[in-house]
Amino acid sequence: MRVLGVDPGLTRCGVGVVEGVVGGPLSMIGVGVVRTLADAELGHRLVGIERGIEAWLDEHRPDAVAVERVFSQHNVRTVMGTAQASAVAMLCASRRGIPVALHTPSEVKAAVTGSGRADKAQVGSMVTRLLRLDAPPKPADAADALALAICHIWRAPAQNRLQQAVAAHRTLKGRTA
CB–CB of 27/131 below 8 Å? Predict the structure, then answer.
């Protein structure tokens, strides 16, 4: 499975592609950051993010896209920008028919480090070890994008089985009603 992880942000949108399967070795295919100018008009920034994500989708052809789920922060402006960048990534993938999954920051941290309260340095360190890299990817947004992709590779099969079980239960329940 090849997954594009997206750590959304208006100024720096981390992107990383990881390939692998549960229980097997993981390989980093690419990592980077889509950047926009902080003083540019919002619409232009979103178009810049769209172009960057589209280029990553064109180049790497992922099977799925994993995006960090936006969570409530104290700074509403930051939350809005993150949500807007997240929506752009989801739109780009969905337009191509690529499945999109959202993962919370604590879910990603727990999957990669074993603790949902891990700090950025711990996440970067584990991403480096899991992908057998010489050094943690910089900036942290890039490492976080790789962590999202790893989390999705490890958790997607279980999530798919749960969704199938719920769907089967609903179908059975509908037949007996």
Answer: yes
Q: Which of 68-72, 96-100, 104-108, 116-120 has the lowest mean pLDDT?
A: 68-72
Catalytic positions are 7, 68, 141
Output the CA angle 157-86-131, nearest 5 degrees. 50
Q: Which two tokens stand for residue 36?
A: 């926009």
For residue 139, is the peptide bond before it cis, meaning its omega torsion is within 30 degrees of 0? Answer: yes
pLDDT digits 0-9 by tens, 103-141: 999 999 999 999 999 999 999 999 999 999 999 999 999
> In this structure, are residues 66 and 107 in contact, taking their beta carbons and an 8 Å threshold?
no
Exposure string over 79-114, b if 16+ CB within 10 A, otherwise e: eebbebbbebbbebbeeeebebbebebebbbbbbbe
pLDDT in tens, 8-21: 999 999 999 999 99
The phi, psi pair for 10, rounded to 5°, reads -75, -40
Q: Quick check: helix, strand or coil at residue 8?
A: coil
- CA gap 44, 132 in Å, rounded: 37
Instruction: Record the tokens describing residue 37, joined without a space.
Output: 């100018």
Whether the pLDDT of residue 95 is over 80: the answer is yes
Residue carrying structure tokens 């981390």: 14
Work out the angle between the directed axes of helices 42-60 and 76-95 (0-180°, nearest 10). 40
Strand partners, 6: 15, 67
